Amino acid sequence: MRAKVWTRIGSGVALVGAVGLGLVAVPAGAGAAPELPPVSAEELVASVGQTPPGPFNGTVEVDNALGLPAIPGAPDQLAAGTTQARIWSGGDGKGRVSLPSAQGEKTLVSDGTTAWSYDSTDRTATQKAITPGERHTQPADPTRSATDAIAQLRRTSTVAVDGTAEVAGRPAYELVLTPNPTERTLLREVRIAVDAEKRVPLRLTVLANGSGDPALQIGFTDLTFGAQDPGLFTFTPPPGTTVTEAPERTGTKPHRPAGAEPTVVGDGWDTVVVAEVPAGQPGREPGQGAPDLSQLGTPVSGSWGRGRLITTAVASAILTDDGRVAAGAVPEQVLTEALAK
């Protein structure tokens, strides 16, 4: 469970839970600024995601410069450095993602009705039925990450178009979201490159206050639209694979221990996610191979209790002694106010 605590910390620090940005990036290989017809910020925002882009495939590059402390058990996506993923989309809920790692490869496949997750490292696979109307998001997809960012940050931002760019060989407009002065955040701006023809986001860039370099990056380095091989969206577990069935989603939520559901405090740029480790769960305390997080960061205390503060250029998190985690792209004061509520 301590590994899960670290995941919650990392998710908040990486802005996944805090402001819904997912991973963000400026991909390598961006070309010179192309000449495009002028468009207003409102027109560009209104056009994003209005028309499905159709089938496509591409390579996504993730560049993580968050500066998170290294710790055993942390998820691969939180490790510093550059990683890549391959994405195929067939439309109608069909998709495939390949996530290579030093130990092997994780493959995610959906045919629109069934989703598979396969890990070649330990030869395990999980099969899950997709219920009608269920949104099945592909990880490492800058299009979805950027669309979510626009939806969640637009109301508390100044929005502008700042020129054009070439991303993955395609002309794009640069959409910039800057937090309103009332927003208490460590972030300076979010930049989204929007495909001039398809009007889908191609890259997402997050910049922190006091730095000109992106802190965390995701974006296409190559992208091709067009029909895809139908065989890419079917999956057969290799011989020797251990297969488990994920429970089907129903109209009622599965039982969760008290306090297990994260709480969202605030909105927009200064959103804080507060999560709690259920009492009595194995691994809540260090030991049995779980990473010990008790020495990370610096000691802090307040009316909410005592804990340790972990900070990066773009976010901060507090791990409390009583098992709670508060994380967001915000200063320490905003975290402590959220914990005190």
From TrEMBL:
<dbReference type="InterPro" id="IPR029046">
    <property type="entry name" value="LolA/LolB/LppX"/>
</dbReference>
<dbReference type="InterPro" id="IPR052944">
    <property type="entry name" value="Sporulation_related"/>
</dbReference>
<feature type="region of interest" description="Disordered">
    <location>
        <begin position="244"/>
        <end position="265"/>
    </location>
</feature>
<protein>
    <submittedName>
        <fullName>Sigma-E factor regulatory protein RseB domain-containing protein</fullName>
    </submittedName>
</protein>
<feature type="region of interest" description="Disordered">
    <location>
        <begin position="280"/>
        <end position="302"/>
    </location>
</feature>
